[in-house]
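Tokens for chain A. Residues wanted.
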């Protein structure tokens, strides 16, 4: 049987092309489902939330290539924004959102009963391999203040979640990180819910 060099070369080239395309594909951002407390009572009055554009910082420490860690893609900045805007809409009778820095003169006209100011918020992502386990940890730190006409309350929240799996048993970091991130934001939102209520009561009474 005569060896067809040109035909074999074409097959090898096609195989390598398919491998390159499959390895370089873009992985979509993991869709995170946010959970909010049920039966939220509305706070009466007119309120505002300020979220400045540079409020968020991401610290990412991925020290292992196991569990397809290169495919991890989480839009955490947007999750912080969604968490506070959706929660505020559920909690306040009337609320206005501003994507800018807060100015003290804003409260002088006394149109708003209180203002929620989202300050420095940080997400820390850590992934490493220990023995045959891939270990992931997400830490959320959220800082916001509630201001009234004469008082203000500072709030510092922290939420952590971990996930781990044997690196040889279909270990995918994008799936594990999704679960851990959903639980981390669930805890953060519950903390924010309680703190916002207490803070608004303090600055408006």
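Reply:
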């Amino acid at each position: 049987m005569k060896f067809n060099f040109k035909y074999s070369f074409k097959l090898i080239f096609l195989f390598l092309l398919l491998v390159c395309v499959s390895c370089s594909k873009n992985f979509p951002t993991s869709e995170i489902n946010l959970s909010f407390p049920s039966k939220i009572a509305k706070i009466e009055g007119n309120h505002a939330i300020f979220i400045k554009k540079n409020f968020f910082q991401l610290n990412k420490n991925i020290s292992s290539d196991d569990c397809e860690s290169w495919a991890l893609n989480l839009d955490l900045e947007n999750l912080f924004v969604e968490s506070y805007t959706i929660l505020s809409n559920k909690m306040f009778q009337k609320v206005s959102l501003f994507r800018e820095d807060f100015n003290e003169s804003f409260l002088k006209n006394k149109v708003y009963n209180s203002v929620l100011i989202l300050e420095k918020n940080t997400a820390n992502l850590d992934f490493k391999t220990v023995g045959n386990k891939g270990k992931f940890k997400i830490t959320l730190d959220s800082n916001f203040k509630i201001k009234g006409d004469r008082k203000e309350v500072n709030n510092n929240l922290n939420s952590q979640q971990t996930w781990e799996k044997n690196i040889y048993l279909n270990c995918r970091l994008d799936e594990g990180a999704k679960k851990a991130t959903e639980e981390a934001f669930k805890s953060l939102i519950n903390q924010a819910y309680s703190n916002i209520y207490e803070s608004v009561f303090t600055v408006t009474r």
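Confidence is low (pLDDT under 50) at residues 13-28. Helices lie at 5-23, 76-91, 173-204.
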